[in-house]
Fold this sequence. Notes:
Shape of chain B: globular
Helix content of chain A: under 10%
Distance between the termini of chain B: 37 Å
Largest sheet of chain A: 7 strands, mixed
Oligomer: heterodimer
Distance between the termini of chain A: 36 Å
Amino acid sequence: DAGVIQSPRHEVTEMGQEVTLRCKPISGHNSLFWYRQTMMRGLELLIYFNNNVPIDDSGMPEDRFSAKMPNASFSTLKIQPSEPRDSAVYFCASSPGGDVGYEQYFGPGTRLTVT
Amino acid sequence: KNQVEQSPQSLIILEGKNCTLQCNYTVSPFSNLRWYKQDTGRGPVSLTIMTFSENTKSNGRYTATLDADTKQSSLHITASQLSDSASYICVVTLVYNAGNMLTFGGGTRLMVKP
């Protein structure tokens, strides 16, 4: 199994631009999670999906952030417009269970730098 | 105030030595507590998961303990290796009416020197 796949691995963009991060979960997993990690705030859960349906988006910082999961094998996290404070590492994780309490498998992350 | 506190924030030990990382939590009730290892530039990898009724769980040289009375967990690393250099994150799954919620510790950064 290839594990959770994220792309791109690194993204550098200018303030105001739209950024789209992509994630392919492990085949057969029915839950998908998006996290953000910074030195100051550590790891934060942004949103998670179960069977492609958003269950809890309370961690999404503001309306500039949106996430979709059009099918069981693909999800996107979009930031529009991006700001320097969005600079962080964004992780996607998937789980065979139905909520946050189950074992999660993380992807390698996307390092986003907004200048 | 973060409801999951880890200590120390950073630690340097010599290869071959043992060490213990601490995680104190105030969230309650919880369904499980997890320890993750995160190598630099990579995603976290699960080391152990313990339910509230478990006291200890081992994974090779890693042993996690849980004291639900004092709300403390520890991760003990035996005979450390250079590859143990990483950040270690404690995560508590909080149970509430609408479902479960994760609460993350700030992590301990461990460096193992030869």
